[in-house]
Amino acid sequence: MDESQKIIFSTKALLLHRDKFLVLHKKSNNRMPVFLWDLPGGTMAFGEAPEETIIREITEETGLIISDLRLYDTWVHQKDEMTQLSGVVYLGQTSITEITLSNEHDRFQWITLDDPEVDSVHPAFRPKVIKLRNERASQLPNDASLK
Hints:
By secondary structure, the protein is α+β, with helices and mostly antiparallel strands. It contains two helices and six strands; from the N terminus they run E-E-E-H-E-E-E-H.
């Protein structure tokens, strides 16, 4: 590994409200392409545990206070030749849909797991949304079992 290369650890959350999950849109002056939706979350501060990071980031970015989160999956994304992002995704639920956005985001949306907008979720997190959709679909009774 080149000494100038770095790995940044970050936490993200799939926050569910009934059959929808929350996505955030970063302002265009940030580093993410403006056409992508992001999941709530962010970079771990020195001395924080991942659980503390995700709770802090959700509160900062959305105004929501979420305590019922469970570890769902991991993710890796090579940002550029010198930077790799790595982290965990938590799964949580909320009964509140009113969001107070931070100054780094310009809008939010609650979308269903099968919404075409899933294709616009950041490529590091899109597979996690699809995984959750498939898990939920496999738990539904099929038409044959209803006859």
